[in-house]
Amino acid sequence: MMPRDDRTVRLPRAERKARGRAFRDRLALQEHAVVAASERDPVEVLERQGASRIPELLAIRHARMASSPFAFYRGAAAIMAEDLRQLPDSGTTTQLCGDAHLDNVGFYASPERALIGDLNDFDETAPGPFEWDLKRMATSFEIAGRAGALDEDVRHRVLEELVRAYASAMRTASRTPAIELFTGRLDVADLLADLEEELPRKVSRRAASAVAAMLRRDSRSAARQLAVRDDDGLRFRSDPPLLVPVHRMVEQGRITAGDAQERLDEVRRRYRESLAPERRRLLDRYRLADAAVKVVGVGSVGLRAWVLLFEGDVKRDLLVLQAKEAERSVLEPAGRAGAYAHQGERVVRGQRTLQALSDVLLGWTSGADPQGRQREFSVRQFRDWKGGVDVERLGPETMPAYARYCGLVLARAHARGGDPAVLTGYIGAGRTLSAALAAFATAYADRNAADHAALLAAIAAGRVEASAS
């Protein structure tokens, strides 16, 4: 999967670390401060992305991105990818998240039912220069810090904490036995215990309360929120355009009941084939009760995303899966073959590489849209204790701690996807890189603010539509 000669990892660690230092001749650490000049039109990039999406949902995407500079940034991975490609890169590659920002680090249930923390969004995952993820993460903290009215000194300290934590975790990873690196987890209970003395008591209590709420987020809670039991059994509610069940599409004459069942059976069959045999046995304990199109996220709005409702033999044994359309990663240059022909498989393979422990029902599938075109999807549990930090409530006391955590998470993921010895050789202690990325994040946050203003102007001029629903 990785664009490197795998024989490199069998060289002595000191030699691989020296190779990393040699990459500084290609791109000095100080040069990461640069933001390339660009004349690209951010709205045009969004319009190009929208060409393959559901047209009637694009107004929702635009409205969500227009709500704030940070919301715009969440949906602007393609715009930033174009900008990053204009810069010289370090040549030190890894498997990238592709959309690394502070809201894409979260918590979920491990296979043995512990609440763990890790990256949690992989729609854009692909191999690439490690700094692309780190620059996107750093800029997200700068934008969030501005939104929280943190002063410049605090924002600079936050970025320093992020990069130094990343560098420290990478050094540790380079000395960690491989089996421990690839299986080690970040337990949320341990994390909260470590932070208890550092954070104010009210913040610790709030964090503990948030964790308790996450433990209630499962398929049963999703079904209570999204479905209703009537004479025809358990079915999704209809809340167009945000939630449109298949049975509603049949009633409207958009598809026949027979065609709908045939397509859903094919989606399930292909998904089942992507699972390991023991996971197929788990899936086979459930029958598909209903399916619905559901609008999700910010940047993902307009992509075809389904929720699939399953029932088991035991009362209250419910399973809700999400099948999310996967297109080519924004990191992959047009005209060049990607790592995988099936984009859902790309997402899943990248997620399994970057996460120490992944969803036991993670898989991929394909299905035809109403026009008969095959669409590719990644599949995961819709809710499995999934949650994250309330970004809007991060302040001067909590944001530095969260930045350290995000640096740790990102470094461990990159160490699994690349060579931590090479990466730590290039990065060093992190002081020089920290100063460079602080300058980059400041400049790119300014550009993001201008891009957000351009979207607002395009909406005001009627160039693009925006609607909350």
TrEMBL record:
- Which Pfam family, any one, appears in the UniProt record? DUF2252
Where does this protein come from, organism-wise?
Agromyces agglutinans
Q: Which PANTHER family match?
A: DUF2252 DOMAIN-CONTAINING PROTEIN
Show the InterPro entries listed in the entry: DUF2252, Kinase-like_dom_sf
Domain of life of the organism encoding this protein: Bacteria
Question: Could you tell me what this protein is called?
Answer: DUF2252 domain-containing protein
